[in-house]
């Protein structure tokens, strides 16, 4: 196999040879070929058609660089198909899509329907603990395998590789908007939030366990002592068994509401993806907001929430008295007519997306404004009011619907934001309407956003900063109270009436 092509993403750093010996071992899945015609030219033509209408392909890179990246992908992908290596094809595609610096363009783990591709995600290669990246430090947050790992320990090496180098090797495969690497580090943390963890997928393909089948991990304990451990890897079922969040499907409440002793209510919302849920989230939320009459404040924790539906709108609606358009972007697309190849090799949940370019207004430079721009309709005011102080806890995971909510929250002037800089990007993001494009030879599906959202005024290439920056500190692990929650609650108490809350003048 031509590793020179398939490891092209790593070859651009000093890590080029770091994982070369293991990255594509015979254990990796091979295209079965049953009833399958391998036609690299067709796959590449589909890919070119998709990139021809991608709304953000030139937003964060020059035209010449975009062409070089696409050519590099084609060489890597073609080499993988010639050898029948679906793992190589998947990595080549993932690395290329990451060069677009679009947080919604990726070979979505949840949308794959080809057996060869899905098999990549179920291999016994996972690390048996949870962790998060603090800068380039890998900090253990939970021992999920009963192996005696101490939360708060720092992982210094994994299988002989410095943790920082492992992070650097996986970042080129990880989605994010613009230069917002905080989002990429959040995705590469493992905290039991997702059925498929981004780190697990790419670590399993790029840096699986060594020849003895074990992960050799060098740790520095919170006491400062150094230990070396040989840990058995776990599979997908074992990873999921450790998850604590409520599944997306079913009718169980997925959020929690706590009435604290200080009179502040804490609403924790770890996810807003409600399309598979039978739970009446709106009724649940409205009932709890109705109970705030005597509260000293409301703290909304969305730090672990990427997005989904616009579940934050009912909260904003109770704080305003006129319609609020908190979305600071204009919509642009890069086609008037959908390429036939994409119609033939994609699916979507709304066939009207294929006609999104009909009647679009030219903006020049290969961009158009959709004729009917119904993105982010203004939030209308509710007749019911929240009169106590409201705080939202935010962080780098917020990059889709929660990114939109945080924009609206700031525009309303009625929220105080605590935590860390969000994901997403103030300059431009993409989304709103999608095709799920399938490359027929490899069977890999990737998400193709059709709408680009571009800031109406010049903005920095970063997420939204909180009003009060409280970056995560490993010393917080195992603490009885969450310092970010406590800071927000203290602000609520200090800002409101000790008895009934302090009414705010809505605008």
UniProtKB/TrEMBL annotation:
Keywords: Signal. Residues 266-469 form the Tail specific protease domain. The keyword Signal applies. The keyword Ribosomal protein does not apply. Pfam families: Peptidase_S41. Residues 1-29 form the signal peptide. This is Tail specific protease domain-containing protein. It comes from Sphingomonas jejuensis.
């Amino acid at each position: 196999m031509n590793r020179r092509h398939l490891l092209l993403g790593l070859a651009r750093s000093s890590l080029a040879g770091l994982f070369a010996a293991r990255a594509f071992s015979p254990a990796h899945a091979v295209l079965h070929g049953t009833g399958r015609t391998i036609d690299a030219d067709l796959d590449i033509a589909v890919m070119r058609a998709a990139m021809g209408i991608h709304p953000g392909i030139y937003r964060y890179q020059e035209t010449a660089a975009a062409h070089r990246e696409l050519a590099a992908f084609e060489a890597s992908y073609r080499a993988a198909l010639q050898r029948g290596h679906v793992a190589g094809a998947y990595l080549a595609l993932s690395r290329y899509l990451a060069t677009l610096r679009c947080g919604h363009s990726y070979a979505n783990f949840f949308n794959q329907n080809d057996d060869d591709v899905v098999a990549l995600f179920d291999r016994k290669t996972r690390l048996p603990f949870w962790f998060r990246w603090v800068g380039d430090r890998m900090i253990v947050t939970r021992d999920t395998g009963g192996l005696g790992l101490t939360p708060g320990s720092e992982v210094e090496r994994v299988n002989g590789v410095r943790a920082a180098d492992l992070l650097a090797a996986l970042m080129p495969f990880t989605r994010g908007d613009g230069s917002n690497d905080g989002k990429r580090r959040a995705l590469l943390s493992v905290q039991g939030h997702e059925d498929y963890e981004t780190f697990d997928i790419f670590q399993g393909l790029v840096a699986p366990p060594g020849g003895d089948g074990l992960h050799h991990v060098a740790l520095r304990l919170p006491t400062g002592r150094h230990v070396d451990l040989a840990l058995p890897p776990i599979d997908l079922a074992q990873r999921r068994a450790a998850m604590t969040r409520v599944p997306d499907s079913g009718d169980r409440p997925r959020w929690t509401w706590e009435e604290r002793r200080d009179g502040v209510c804490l609403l924790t919302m770890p996810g807003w993806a409600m399309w598979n849920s039978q739970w009446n989230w709106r009724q649940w939320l409205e009932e709890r907001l109705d109970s705030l009459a005597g509260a000293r404040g409301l703290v909304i924790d969305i730090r672990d929430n990427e997005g989904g539906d616009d579940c934050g709108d009912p909260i904003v609606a109770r704080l305003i008295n006129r319609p609020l358009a908190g979305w600071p972007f204009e919509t642009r697309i890069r086609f008037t007519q959908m390429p036939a190849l994409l119609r033939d090799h994609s699916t979507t949940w709304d066939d009207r997306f294929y006609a999104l370019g009909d009647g679009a207004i030219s903006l020049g430079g290969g961009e158009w404004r959709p004729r009917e721009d119904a993105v982010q309709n203004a939030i209308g005011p509710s007749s019911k009011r929240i009169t106590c102080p409201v705080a939202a806890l935010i962080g780098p995971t917020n990059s889709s619907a929660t990114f939109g909510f945080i924009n609206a929250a700031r525009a309303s002037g009625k929220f105080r934001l605590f935590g860390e800089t969000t994901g997403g990007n103030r300059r431009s993001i993409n989304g709103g309407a999608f095709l799920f494009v399938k490359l027929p030879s490899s069977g890999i599906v990737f998400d193709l956003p059709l709408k680009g959202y571009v800031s109406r005024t010049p903005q920095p290439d970063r997420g939204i900063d909180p009003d009060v920056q409280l970056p995560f500190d490993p010393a917080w692990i195992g603490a009885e109270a969450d310092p970010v929650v406590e800071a927000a609650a203290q602000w609520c108490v200090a800002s409101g009436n000790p008895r009934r809350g302090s009414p705010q003048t809505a605008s």
